[in-house]
Write a structure and sequence with these properties.
The protein is an alpha+beta fold. It has one domain: OB fold (Dihydrolipoamide Acetyltransferase, E2P) (Beta Barrel), CATH 2.40.50. Helices cover 23% and strands 32% of the residues. A seven-stranded mixed β-sheet has the order 3-2-1-6-7-4-5, with no helix packed on it. The protein is elongated and about 65 Å long.
Length: 109
């Protein structure tokens, strides 16, 4: 009986450790992809796996291209982005949007 209890306790502790490893705080989750749409309040990003995520834009959202600050207007359809979304919980809120080095093809025409 003690052996069963010890095994149960070990499995339960392992489960708690795994859960805390997945849900730990202290780093920014990111989403990488291509801008499908943008309006004044949100951004739709298509990830490499094909999933389209809606990410809120706030007055605290910053935009960066390389090491230079950019305007939210620079985030256009077709742009490659990496978006910092804080802890990754819904609703997704953009803290910082990193634009790809080159302007999207649609903007160059």
């Amino acid at each position: 009986m003690n052996k069963r209890f010890a095994m149960f306790l070990a499995v339960a502790l392992f489960g708690l450790m795994v859960r805390s490893a997945w849900a730990h705080e202290g780093h920014i989750h990111t989403i990488m992809g291509t801008v499908m749409e943008r309006d004044a309040h949100s951004l739709q990003v298509k990830t490499p796996s094909g999933e389209v995520l809606s990410i809120a834009i706030t007055d605290k959202t910053t935009v960066v291209r390389g090491k230079q600050k950019a305007a939210i207007a620079d985030v256009q359809k077709g742009a490659r982005v990496v978006v910092g979304i804080g802890n990754g919980e819904d609703p997704l809120i953009a803290g910082e949007i990193h634009l790809g080095a080159a302007a999207p093809a649609a903007a160059r025409k």
